[in-house]
């Protein structure tokens, strides 16, 4: 076990998880509360404070040197504020300032949840050993993050790599973000299910009409379900290829609930990438499923905090 110790928070619309994490990625202490996502901002902050209080009550807290926070977005790391779409009580909420006050002035580093997942995959997952990587979370939405030249690249506000809002259909459906034809509007779980339902697919009586059921139907050969996943895969491939062409990533790591479909998603994704990643310098792009699992948010928040704890360059990652 490394003597380096940081605290980590993973804040989403359903749960607020906390942990103490050592410099080798070992999770030593855990705490968790449900997110009161429909309550006011102070009530949500109260749940964060409860998680931190539980971590602070243990004997290891005295060794903690920094706090990393991975939050549903948008986030603004430049101001330390968060405005998660799925937590309406937080709009421009000063999370970094409040967390610093609760923890007695610890250094705090805030990143978006897609960037946190990227940090985790580069540190202890499928992107380990790659200096240039794109990592995607394909779930209710589509998020992502970048590692460039061996360093996490969150951008000025902590949102760089947000591949879900690259437009891949110029005249496509309007996206809630304000643009059209975004990757997320085609490849997220709800939109995979929406397209399948619009084209005549139906779940078993009493069954869930979500993307997991569409994946099961595609696995069984249902042509509408297969087509919905193939369309999602093409959108992802177009976004990945555009990113790789722009910044020359070597690997694209895909995680999140939709990635659980396995080859139903990955087989057409690899096929489509051969079409979209056509230039010679992106031909060798590797696509791999994420490996950090359900702890990715916590590990990524810790990975983001460790350089702060070491007083290192702010965008470097643990080795």
Automatic annotation (TrEMBL):
This is ROK family protein. It comes from the Bacteria. Pfam families: ROK. InterPro entries: ATPase_NBD, ROK, ROK_cs. Belongs to the ROK (NagC/XylR) family. PANTHER family: N-ACETYLMANNOSAMINE KINASE (PTHR18964:SF169), ROK (REPRESSOR, ORF, KINASE) FAMILY (PTHR18964). Transmembrane segments: none annotated. PROSITE patterns: ROK.
């Amino acid at each position: 076990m490394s003597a380096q110790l940081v605290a980590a928070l993973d804040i989403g619309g359903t749960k607020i998880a906390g942990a103490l994490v050592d410099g080798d990625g070992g999770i030593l202490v855990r705490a968790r509360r449900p997110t009161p996502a429909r309550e006011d901002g102070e009530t949500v902050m109260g749940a964060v404070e409860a998680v931190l209080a539980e971590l602070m009550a243990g004997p290891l807290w005295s060794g903690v040197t920094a706090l990393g926070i991975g939050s549903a977005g948008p986030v603004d790391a430049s101001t330390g504020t968060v405005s998660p779409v799925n937590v309406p009580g937080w709009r421009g909420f000063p999370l970094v300032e409040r967390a610093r006050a609760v923890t007695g002035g610890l250094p705090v580093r805030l990143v978006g949840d897609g960037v946190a997942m990227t940090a985790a995959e580069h540190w202890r997952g499928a992107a380990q050993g790659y200096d240039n990587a794109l990592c995607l979370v394909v779930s209710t939405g589509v998020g992502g993050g970048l590692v460039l030249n061996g360093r996490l690249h969150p951008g000025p506000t902590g949102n760089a790599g947000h591949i879900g809002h690259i437009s891949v259909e110029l005249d496509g459906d309007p996206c809630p973000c304000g643009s059209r034809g975004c990757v997320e509007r085609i490849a997220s779980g709800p939109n995979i299910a929406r397209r399948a339902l619009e084209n005549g697919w139906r779940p078993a009586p009493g069954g869930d009409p979500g993307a997991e059921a569409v994946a099961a139907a595609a696995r069984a050969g249902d042509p509408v379900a297969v087509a919905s996943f193939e369309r999602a895969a093409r959108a992802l491939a177009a976004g990945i290829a555009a990113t790789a062409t722009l910044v020359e990533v070597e690997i694209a790591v895909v995680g999140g609930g939709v990635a659980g479909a396995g080859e139903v998603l990955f087989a057409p994704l690899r096929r489509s990438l051969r079409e979209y990643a056509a230039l010679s310098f992106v031909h060798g792009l590797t696509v791999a499923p994420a490996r950090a699992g359900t702890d990715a948010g916590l590990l990524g928040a810790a990975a983001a905090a460790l350089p702060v704890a070491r007083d290192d360059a702010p965008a470097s990652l643990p080795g």
